[in-house]
Design a protein that fits this description.
Elements: H1 5-27, E1 33-41, E2 44-51, E3 62-63, E4 67-75, E5 77-81, E6 84-88, E7 93-96, E8 101-105, E9 112-119, H2 121-128, E10 143-144, H3 148-163, H4 170-187, H5 197-212, H6 220-227, H7 231-242, H8 246-264, H9 269-275, H10 281-292, H11 296-303
Antiparallel strand pairs: 1-2, 2-9, 3-8, 4-7, 4-9, 5-6, 5-8, 7-10
Helix pairs in contact: 1-8, 3-4, 3-8, 5-6, 6-7
Amino acid sequence: MIGRRGPEILGKIATDLELALARRRAAGDPARMAGRVLATGTGWSVADVLCTAGPSDRAFEERHEAVSIAIVTAGSFQYRSPAGRALLTPGSVLLGNPGQAFECGHDHAAGDRCVAFRYTPEYFESIVGPVASTARLDFPAVRLPALRELAGLVATGMSATLAGGIAGSWEEIGVQLAVASYRAASREPQSDSAGPAAAEARVTRVIRMLERDRTGGGGLSQMAGVAGLSPYHFLRTFQRLTGSTPHQYLMRQRLRGAAVRLATESAKVIDIALGSGFGDLSNFNRAFRTEFGATPLGYRRRVRGPGRARPSQDPTRR
């Protein structure tokens, strides 16, 4: 059984979303997208964006004003644009090109939260241009699933949101994320990662269940039961829509929670391991090193530093 502290520290991000949704239901307010600027500089900004839209709300067309890279930290939503469609879930990354029209829908469950980086085209080109293999710098995909090569940056973005900025400056995180996302997107298949509405609804039920209970319950059979599918069909559907098997998704969720704890508190590694659902410290150390390329203590030393990002004004876009 997973310990309580692991879910609490990562769940703080999801809890804030649930509280916003509860306030909306109690007050009968319309859906809104609220943003808190975490840091900004010449040519870039980063914001903590929380959306309370749900299945009864109409999805309106928007447009990316800049290059957008958004780490999904809680909830889920459907993203649609001329460039493709995708189901966005915690740990995945939304990619948007400037001038690109899009819709974000919450057809199957309410609310989402993202750490959204925005770059002017000129600033983005100054970052990515030197490492690009072609002259075209647009993202060829609309979503990156939870990938090992992005795991450290995703966890750092979540940690920095809670701690007010760690690992030096937000700009450094944004630069690293831009390069890593561009490289990953150039290799990812460009086909749609969305599916029929019924399949998205089934997988979304499981995603939201895992956000509330990170034990995984009874494993594949229980998740398949929640989705109303056979284990075989659930496994295929879940992997197609999220980019991970259920086991990989749950393992990465636990490891992200552990990384956030390592970055934001001083608990012993063994307590974090047990609190993240690992019954054996050596297994935890091995899994953590595989995912993040460092031991838990090495990761903690790397991400904890004196720099802190200063919050600023209020944004409303991803």
